[in-house]
Structures are given as C-alpha cells and as structure tokens.
C-alpha cells in the first residue's frame, strides 16, 4: 500500500488496502478458515513467525487486517487488534496485560455489562477493582495503590454523557506509572482521539458507530505495538476473533464514519435543544448543551457532541415506559450507533444487572430514557415523541 497523507477522510477510504493480483477496486473479502503454504518449510516458518504471512483465520486474515490498519490510522495508534465484540475487546485487553494481584481503577459511569465483566469475571481471577467518580480527579488519586496497573473510563459515559478530562487523568495515571484506557465508543475517532490527549489504550465496540447500521458484532483494542503484541497473543490462543465478513462490513462503514458522526451530532443537538423546552422533561444530558456541566470540556476535547443523549421525564419508571411505548418510528432496542434512532430505558435494560445502590451512585434513575439519535429527518424523530406534548 502506498503511503497516505495523514488526512482522516482519505485514510477512512483508503488505509490498509493491499490489492490482490485480481486488481479489485473494493476491498477483497477472504472467507477462508486456513491458508495453503508452498511447502513444509514455509508452513513451519509461518507458524514460528519467522516469515510473515497468513496461517489461520483465527489470528491472520487479510480482510481483518485491512480493518485493523484502517482503524489504527484513524485513531493514530501504532496497532489495532480486532475482536469478536466490544466486550471481548475489554476482556482480551485485561486478560493479556494483567495478572492476579493487579489493581484497576474504574469509573463508576460505565456500561452495565462492563461492570459485570469487572465484578464477576476479572475479580474471579484475582484482579482487584475499585470504582471512583469519573469527574473527580482526587478520587482517582486516592484510589491508587502500588498494585494499580490501569485506569479505565468511558468518555462520554453511558448513559449520562459525563466526561473526564483525558489529558488531566492521563497525567495522574502516568505520574504513578499507570496506563489510561479509554472506551471511545460514543465518539469514535471522527469526534475524539484519546491517544492525542495522553491516553495509552483505546477500546471500541465496532458494533456501534464503526458499523453504523446495526448489522454486525465486533470490537477493537488499539495502542502501542508493545501492548498490542500481548493482546494479539491472547487472541491467537483464546480465539475471540473478528470474522472476515464482519471486518469487511466495518471496513466499508469506516468510509462514511466522519459524515455519519457529524450528521448524528447535528440531529442530536436539535433534539436535545427541543427536549429542554418540554414541560414533561425535567433534565437533559447532552454535552452539546450549555446546561451540561462539562460543556466547555466537550468543546475542547471533542470536535462534536455526538449522537447519544439521555433525559429524565416527570414521574418514574411508569412514565418512562409510557413514553417509550408511545413511539412508532423509534426502535425500542438497547443498541446504539445505528442510522435508525433507538430508544431504551437504562434501568431495566443496559444497566439492569446493577444493584439499586449502584444505579443510585451513578445517577441512573427510574425516569431516565436514553436515545441514540439516528439519521432520519429530525422533524420525524421529534414528532414521534409526541407523548411529551400531551
């Protein structure tokens, strides 16, 4: 592949392409489990990594490699390791770079299933977990021990769109020889590049905006070659591998990532502004609003506010469910990052496995509704929320 200029849209369309002898213009899809060697010596050299080349699609596949190289170019990371889902990306990272006795400090404001992974799986393998307020630097500092190896955050968080100052948190981490991991799912590299603000490792659920149309599961871990070599080794052995077909879908989706993310942000901003004016809405959580407590940080750390917002309706769970059930256009599903607008009730879906106390600690109330704003006409999205107008 020819060296490309470091321009986002160009890399989104052309990075990682290695044309075969067939001369295809669109990226090829290699749907094969294994690869044939010229002779026994080459087979041996490939297995020993003496010779670079494809061996077995669990850990070497040209289609997956195109996606990895393209996403790495967009995040400006040295290397990307693609995985079968966003959750497997998180699991692969910590299973490969942690050992029993290590300590991870985690933001309380994270996806409910990620909490379950930390509490019910990583703790079982002797990894200690502490939770702190995403926004409070002093809590992060106080949680550090001589065993702390990682900080882990989502910014913006799910579902309340809270932010951390990546640069400041990275400084705290690096002073103590700790690595900062940022889940960049809500923003993608189109709106935010955590590595440029000091983060060490990025996590993605490619299932969300990287795909953008709700078709495939996938994930990715990005960072230095040194760290990703360890993650790749875990993936080669344990096998939470991204399929070639899904990788091809994600690769094609990256071509329109920037355009889509700008459109999601534009629609979300219009919807958030409208929601703030509704009498049945008591609070709106969206980084693009001046009412958001971290509005200034969002303007400096992100190029746009993103496509996800949450809001509280007057009442409780009954009123939140009534609003959701009254919609006809919006899709009632917990997924996000789709061209179709999705709506969900976090307390009873994405964060339902948290205890009542855990939800209270992170501010997820029974009357909270989350919307991932799609690319429909904004008037139609607003019109579908007519429950709020009654």
TrEMBL record:
Q: What is its EC number?
A: 2.5.1.-
Residues carrying N6-(pyridoxal phosphate)lysine = 208
GO cellular component: a single term: cytoplasm
Write down the superkingdom of origin.
Answer: Bacteria
The family database entries (PROSITE patterns) matched by this protein are listed as: CYS_MET_METAB_PP
Q: What class of enzyme is it?
A: transferase
Q: Name one GO biological process term.
A: 'de novo' L-methionine biosynthetic process
Reaction equations catalysed: O-succinyl-L-homoserine + hydrogen sulfide = L-homocysteine + succinate
Q: What does this protein do?
A: Catalyzes the formation of L-homocysteine from O-succinyl-L-homoserine (OSHS) and hydrogen sulfide.
Q: What is this protein called?
A: O-succinylhomoserine sulfhydrylase
Q: Which organism is it from?
A: Methylophilales bacterium HTCC2181
